[in-house]
Amino acid sequence: MRKLKVYLLTGRTIEQGKAKEFGKTSNLYKDSVAVCYIDPSDMKTLGIKSNTPVKVSTDFGSVVVRAEKSSRGSHPGVVYIPYGPWANQVVDPETHGIGMPSFKGVPAVLEPVPGEKVKEIEELLRDSFGEGSKR
Amino acid sequence: MRKIENVICPVCGSLCDDITVYVEDNRVVEVENTCAVGRAKFLNYGLHRKPKPLIRKNGELKEASIEEAVRRSAEILTESKYPILYGWSSTSCEAIRVGLELAEEVGGIIDNTSTVCHGPSILSIQDVGIPSCTLGQLRHRADLVIYWGSDPYSAHPRHIERYTVFSEGRFQKSGWRSFIRRLSGKLVKKRLSRVAELILRRKLTFPEEKYALPPYFISEEERKLVVVDVRKTRTAEVADYFLQVKPNTDYEVLQALRMLVNDQDLEVDEVAGIPVRTLEDLADLMISCDFGILFFGVGLTMSKGKLRNVDAALSLVRDLNKRTKFLIMPMRGHYNVTGANVVFTWQTGYPYAVDFSLGYPRYNPGETSVVDILRRGECDAGLVVASDPVSNFPASAAKTLVDNPLIVIDPDVTPTSMMADVVFPSAYIGIEAEGTAYRMDHVPLRLKKVVEPPPNCLPDQEILARILREVRRIRRG
Ligand code: SF4
After folding, report:
1. Fold of A4-129
2. How open is the CA angle B10-B14-B15, to the nearest 5 degrees?
3. Residue B98 and residue B110: Cα distance in Å, rounded?
4. What average pLDDT score do residues A96-114 get?
5. Which of A16, A100, A102 is the best mutation test for B, with the most CBs of B within 10 A?
6. Across the A/B interface, how many CB contacts are shorter than 8 Å?
7. Please, what are the averages of pLDDT over each run of 10 residues along chain B (477 residues)?
8. Please, which of A129, B128, B382, B477 could form a disulfide with B402 given CB 3.0 to 4.6 Å?
9. Contacts (Cβ under 8 Å, ≥6 apart) of B92
10. Confidence class of residue A24 from pLDDT cuts 50, 70 and 90?
């Protein structure tokens, strides 16, 4: 499988804003944030279509989300994941001494993982936080 | 059916105050004037809200009475040496005030969500200063509106229509006419080239338009919209002019613009991949307007450079004021994040990241900011109000929060409340409870109560006051 070096941005989308109001455990929310918007030309390079699971890896972790064609202008080499628990598996926690992690412009590697599944929210939380010391 | 007018939308920092809400049988059945996000909130709030507080027993969240939950919370906070009190941007100023009192009482750290959003902007504003104004001013007077690293179409959907380019101001006309003209121009061009392709039977390619020059002069009577961003956002699509910058290069571009505004020569052909010609045109445009505004979003604060990017933007506006009138404003996200900064400041002297562990307020972002404390694993309990750090913090920081006792006050079920030990499902401020909130331009507005909350869902302020009383009772014996 081919891999691609990209910059990862995270941020708000109107879909995420709406879906949030239906509850963060809803499928609508998962559909709106467990997604990576990719430039059509990059999708071609990787040989993938919309909804193919892709793995986004950075120095800080990796996460599987579904690919989606970005419809806004061309931005090859830049991918976008809306704010949410999936995006936060891979953002840069370093605050450089001012309290603010780097949520945008994190170098990442993108690779298609056709067989894998996008985790449900409960599974994602369990895997990243364990059952907790008190649980 | 009851019709309530001039309701304020408690979702984003635009705090639109012209919403009409229709209520029947204590349910909101219809809303008018909101955007899609506001509408989703008014019509679907509380879908998953639990009917009673929850306490974790043997690993599972079990229903409990308010009194039990208050007692358990007070125990957690009094047993803790260094608790974190976090959130505050989606609740009322009154609740924030009680929260600060609680933080002082338990000697903890209190921080609000601006720490991971416009915290760097606040640091720069403290360094450089900020020439700003209210949104009403802009609506009536601004003839050049720039959104830099901000996508209001997605994050503040009615901002453009209500306060800037597409609003009909007293001295400035709405820009929608020129937008329609441009749109039809583009459509006609697309159709013609399609016809030409069919006739010639081959694909036509057109030169890249990306760095096309701003196609107008500011002297036209309609106001202009410029968007600078790392990708073509939905806002960029309606802009008169869109400048795409590479990720992490905002600082260079802003400083280059400063040089041009100050009549200095750039001895290069391009800056961060953008031809100097293009920047010269943009600088001319900024100088030639009568009343410009630069809105900047977290695109500046969250990427490389962080507070220094904002320094450059503030300095650019300061320089522009030697030539014309120019203002600048951060696009604040949550509906009362500005209020959180205001209340924090008037109570403690500092806008966020306030540490009470020594008995007096101390402020040193990087040391006393919540993500840093969590990453160093220093805190031993948490209280989260109306926020979802487990979703919104980098996973390594969220882990400390989850590993320690955690109290959550939030009407919504979130990943944070799912991982908590005590959960208070509270009333929705602005729908089920009154409260004060500050709009992004620091105008305080009174949120309305349009329906009654369910019996076991108190407003945040009341829950916090009860916890504070219980903490004092335990501590004073
Ligand atoms: S723009 Fe913001 S405040 Fe206005 S209706 Fe939409 S979500 Fe509510």
Report:
1. Barwin-like endoglucanases (2.40.40)
2. 35
3. 12
4. 84
5. A100
6. 190
7. 94 94 94 92 89 92 95 96 95 97 96 91 92 92 92 90 84 73 69 70 56 49 85 86 90 95 91 90 91 92 87 96 95 94 96 96 94 94 94 89 95 91 96 96 95 94 97 91
8. A129
9. B336, B339, B429, B433, B434, B435, B436, B437, B447, B459, B460, B461
10. confident
A65 secondary structure, DSSP code: E
Greater pLDDT, A15 or A109: A109
Nearest to B412 among A12, A24, A73 (CB): A24
For ligand 1, atom 6, name the residue with the nearest CA: B35
Confirm or reject contact between B137 and chain A (CB < 8 A).
no
Instruction: Work out the number of other CB atoms within 10 angstroms of the CB of residue B459.
Output: 24
Residue with tokens 């096309």: B212
Q: How far apart are the first and last CA of chain B?
A: 51
Domains of chain B and any CATH numbers = 50-117+335-476 (3.40.50.740), 121-330 (3.40.228.10)
Q: Max Cα separation, chain A?
A: 48
Could you give the dihedral angle defined by the CA atoms of residues B219, B225, B230 and B234, in that order, rounded to the nearest 10 degrees?
-150
Structural domain boundaries in chain A: 4-129
Count of CB atoms situated within 10 Å of the CB of B183: 13
Please say whether the beta carbons of B260 and B179 come within 8 A: no
| Residue linked to tokens 């304020």 | B8
pLDDT in tens, A8-22: 888 877 777 777 777
Q: What is each CA distance from B283 to A27, B54, B277, B289, B426, in whole angstroms?
A: 46, 57, 10, 10, 49
